Amino acid sequence: MRVKRARLVKLGLLGLVLALALAAAYTSSLIVQQQQTLREVSRYNPTWLVSQAALEISRLEGLTMAALVPDSGVDEDDVQLWFDIVMNRAQVLESGELAGLVSASPEFAAIAAEFRRTMRVGQAIMEEPATPGRLRRLHALFGALNAPMARLAAASNTHGGELAAQDRRQLGNLHWLFASILGALTLCAFGLIGALLRRNRLLAQARTKVEQQNRALERRDHELLAQNARIFFMAHHDALTGLPNRLMFHDRLQEALMQQRRWGDGIALLCLDLDHFKQVNDTLGHPVGDMLLKAVAGRLRECVRDGDMVARLGGDEFAVLQCGARQPERASELAQRIVEKLGAPYDLGGDRAVVGASVGIAVVTPDLCSADTLLRSADLALYRAKADGRGSFRLFESGMDEQMRARRTLERDLREALAQNEFEVFYQPVFHLQGQCVSGFEALIRWRHPDRGLIPPVQFIPIAEELGLIVPMGEWVLAQACADAVTWPGDVMVAVNLSPVQFYSPGLVAAVRQALQRSGLPARRLELEITESALLQDSKTVLATLHELRALGLRTALDDFGTGYSSLSYLRSFPFDKLKIDQSFVREMAYRPDCRAIVKSVLDLAHELGMTTTAEGVETEEQLDQLRRDGCTEVQGFLFDRPRPAADIRHWLAPGADGSVLRRGGGVRTETV
Ligand code: C2E
Ligand code: MG
Ligand code: MG
Question: How far is the CA of 583 from the centre of ligand 1 (A)?
Answer without folding.
Answer: 10
